[in-house]
Amino acid sequence: MIGIVDYHLNNLRSVQKAFEKAGAPSFISDDPAQLRTADKLVLPGVGAFGQAMENLHTLGLKDVVLAHAAAGRPLLGICLGMQLLFSRSFELGEYEGLGLLRGEVRRFPGTVKVPHMGWNQIEFTAPSPLLQGVPEDAFVYFVHSYYVVPQDDVTVTRTDYGTRFTSIVRQGNIFGIQFHPEKSQSAGLQLLKNFAGI
Amino acid sequence: MLAKRIIPCLDVKNGRVVKGTNFVGLVDAGDPVEQAKFYDAEGADELIFLDITASSDNRNTILEVVQRTAEEVTIPFTIGGGIRTTDDMRTMLRSGADKVSVNTAAVNDPRLISDGAERFGVQCIVTAIDAKRTAEGMWKVFIHGGRTPTELDAVEWAQRCEELGAGEILLTSMDRDGTKDGYDVELLQRVTGAVRIPVIASGGAGTLEHLYDGFALGHADAVLAASIFHFRQYTIRQAKDFLRTKNILVRT
After folding, report:
1. Nearest residue to A151 (alpha-carbon basis) of A131, A122, A173, A171
2. What ipTM was predicted for this assembly?
3. Helix-strand-coil split of chain B, %, nearest 5
4. Residues of A in contact with B221 (CB under 8 A)
5. Domains of chain B, earliest start first
6. Does B216 reach chain A within 8 Å, measured CB to CB?
7. pLDDT means per 10 residues in chain B (252 residues)?
8. Domains of chain A with CATH codes
């Protein structure tokens, strides 16, 4: 069963519904005990990095996510959830992330409109089980002002927005998607289906 | 590259879609959720619902529309109209809306934008601006669905909204709304040139050429249209095919 981590920042129904459509049952929970029973975890999210880390901490969910990852079970971060996987973010200050992936989260430069909002394409840069059946250069839905700069070779896809930033990452059992697969029609559903099937 | 967006707008009153000409003379154009599903399947990039029910009596009607849409639709959608507090925003976002749009309440109390951005993130705060030309090269902001003039200059207000934390501006030309004469390109140019957040062009789309003008001349990031799609004058596909032939990048 897939557990969707609810750290009280947003509506998670669309993520759950997308998994439903992909044929993968999931549950939404903020209860550490229940989330520990999940064989896969999804860390979704929109909102501010600092607030998200604080909520994860106070709800006792940070340790659940870290333990899940350490046990080698699949973990998927979506949007802000992907950024949280990294070492630190410079969103409205400087905050430590979960540190599961090495690298940092930076704001888009002033040369492009921020937020990066709308449908943009993903260019495959490394093979990944997540991309099975997803068309190269598929349009997917982004909404974010910050992007990840990984320190290691974890990038699976890149997207061109002023800079060719990392839009999907993978390191072992840790996966991250910068856009919103749950709002990206068939390409997004395929990605979630692939995660569910890992 | 980031694609330009086409956004059908559904004006909703008492749970039904309506579209007015210059904000009067409403015509019933169907059930909002059915239309939302239709546009989703047809390739719309986003949807906007504007609740023009006005009174607070029927707030549950629009909440039900939001909840049903969230269940049925796979593209992002925004809900606007009658949002006065961050708690109103929260209710809409928790019900499944991706973004909320504020207009009158933000003019009355600009902290609504900053508080909302801080609480929910800039990406979900859209500021809707109803602008009317009052002199050559001069547009003022109107509120209460365009009934009440303010002293605010539309371009300056757009800049202020960006500073406050709005993630996007939905810019409606009141002079053009419902006329099918095309967007107010000059207004668009002034606003898109003044802010660094995405701008949605609204008010006046009557042909596919107008959509093109909104992007190519007005430098809009998205175009909003209602009547031309609602009454099947054009399909979203036709609009996208047309824009593609004019070298505007749109989602396939």
Report:
1. A171
2. 0.91
3. 40, 30, 35
4. 113, 117-118
5. 5-245 (3.20.20.70)
6. no
7. 96 80 46 88 95 72 92 93 93 92 97 92 94 97 94 98 97 95 98 98 97 98 91 91 98 90
8. 2-196 (3.40.50.880)
